[in-house]
Every structure is written in C-alpha cells, then in structure tokens.
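Re: beginner question about structure tokens

> Can someone show what the tokenized structure looks like for a real chain? I only ever see the sequence side.

Sure, here's an example I had lying around. Input first:
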Amino acid sequence: MPLHPRAVAHLRQCDPRMAEVLGRVGPFRLKLQDCSPFESLARAIVFQQLSTKAASTIFGRLAAACGGEVAPSTLARLDDGAVRSLGVSGQKLRYLRDLTRCVEEGALELRALRNFADEQVIERLTQVKGIGVWTAQMHLIFFLGRPDVLPVADLGIQKAAQQVYGLRQLPDARRLERLAEPWRPFRSVACWYLWRSLDGEAALGD
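And the corresponding structure tokens:
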C-alpha cells in the first residue's frame, strides 16, 4: 500500500489507543499477494474458518498439486478425490469449482475488478458460491491493496478491538464501525495493526 506513511501518521494522530498499538507492533509491513487474482481468491476460500497455520499447510499442498500455481486450468486437472485428499473440505471444493466455472465462462472478469470501487468489487465477487463479504474484503485488502476496508465480521479484528479498547465483550458490527470512524480513509491499515497486535491470528470466514 503506497499510502502507508500517510496512513500511519493519520492513525497515530487520530486515535491514542491506535497510536499505542502502532508503537507496540512497529513499522507497517503488509505485502500484497504476488499471485494471480484467481489464486488470491482460491487462497481466501481455503483459509475460511481455519487457523492460519492449518490453512497455509492445506493451500501449500494444493499449490504443489497444481504444479506451483493454482489456476482454473491447473485446478481442473485435479479430480475431486485428489483435491479432498489434500485436506480441502467438500464444501470448499464446491466453492473452488464454482469460482473456476465463473471465470472460465466469463461471468467473472477478475482482472477488471481493479477498475471498480470497493462495494462494486464485493457485489461482483459475492455472486460466486462461497465468496461472501469477508472473503471479498480480504481480496480487497491483500490483493488489490485498497486502503479503507473494514471487515467487521473478522474475529481477529473483533478480539483485537476488544483488547485495545477494554471492552467487556466482542464489539458488534455497529460498534466496530463507530470505533473505526476516525481511522478513515485508512481502515485497512488500522486492521493490519489490530491483527498484528494479537499473539496469534484468528479470522472468521464466510
């Protein structure tokens, strides 16, 4: 995210609690995914509702089985049994197949998404089975590098906000939105810092 020096300065000034998090975590080090948009979305599907460690292992197996790149053509060469044997659930396999179908039939033009606003990207991606708002938001942050995304359904964000702001319970979407209002237009950067403030990463997928 090329805007990150401005973003860090803004977050430090707008929110004392966030400034403390910035001081503890250190420099902003988010690196955008260096892969195709299809692989980014396939990765997000695999990572749904799993720990980072478990999901990374499964996706690593899938990438290796695809010859190093998860793409519609390489995924199509694997039969369902082969994909399931890698640790991919039956439900996620169906999601991956639907993503492949949408791309191959031209219903979803992934490279064109760069030209759309955040809400338009979410609208298009959520037409694919298994891609909900959270998965689309992860694509916006970690692949497209959009600076002002707030994934209110993410358990890691909820837990971190609860700790940072001393809340009695996990904040709901409305409360998170209120807490994050001062972070605009750099809520993605603030979320990265909240994720990193946790001892381990946890996310609630679609």
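Each token stands for a local structural state, so reading them left to right follows the chain. The CA atoms of residues 158 and 170 lie 6 Å apart.
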